[in-house]
Amino acid sequence: MSGQEITINGPDGSFAGYLASPAAGRGPGVVVIQEIFGVNAVVRAVADELAASGFFALAPDLFWRLEPGVQLTDKTDAEWQRAFGLMNSFDANLGVKDIQTTIRHLRGVCTGRVGAVGYCLGGLLAYLTAARTDSEATVGYYGVNIQNFLGEAAAIKNPLMLHIAGKDEYVPPEAQKKIVEGLAGNTRITIHQYPGMNHAFARPGGKHYDQANAGLANSRTATFFRQHLS
User: Fold this and answer.
1) At 209, which CATH number?
2) Does 48 participate in catalysis according to the annotation?
3) Active-site entry in 48, 74, 98, 168
4) Number of folded domains that form the chain
5) Are strands 13-20 and 56-60 parallel, antiparallel or unpaired?
6) What is the pLDDT of residues 54-112, one digit of tens each?
7) Could you confirm whether 228 is annotated as catalytic?
């Protein structure tokens, strides 16, 4: 399954996206929200896998305002430093605005409902996407700093699933506790916890990748999207 580079036109300008399409040429859509490494091979592989499962999957370049076309790996210190620099300069509010633009674009391409899935920085953006956009089903993997936005939980009207890594080096236990307790009142939110896992346990080839737990999380995500987007 190979995707194509497309252009997404938004109110603040145009930016690139990687679109993977299902073989059938029909199906619902999923926005794939990047990590801090840009729309790299890992993100593209997620989109390709979704397309193989029958979805139109579109990964927008959310760093376009800072530096278009970023594709870093998690293999060198220099790339990590560049990735953290981009993350620290990134405006999450504008990122969510671009995700809404991407959802709108995808609605014109796909033949069904549209959801979103995000990882790391994208995990936080997935939570904000559930609160601020018309995504019809959203999934966040090990989102960072969600505890700072719990006040937005009441705005979440469509299903949201969060995967939380119990030993996440970027989300300490007290933050995890705040997230779980702060979101407990919203019946549209499902939280899955993976007690022994570190951040990015579902990133293939990553330092903390765990095949069993990644497989479990991904199967839960697949079922969730089938239930709410099909």
Assistant:
1) 3.40.50.1820
2) no
3) 168
4) 1
5) antiparallel
6) 999 999 999 999 999 999 999 999 999 999 999 999 999 999 999 999 999 999 999 98
7) no
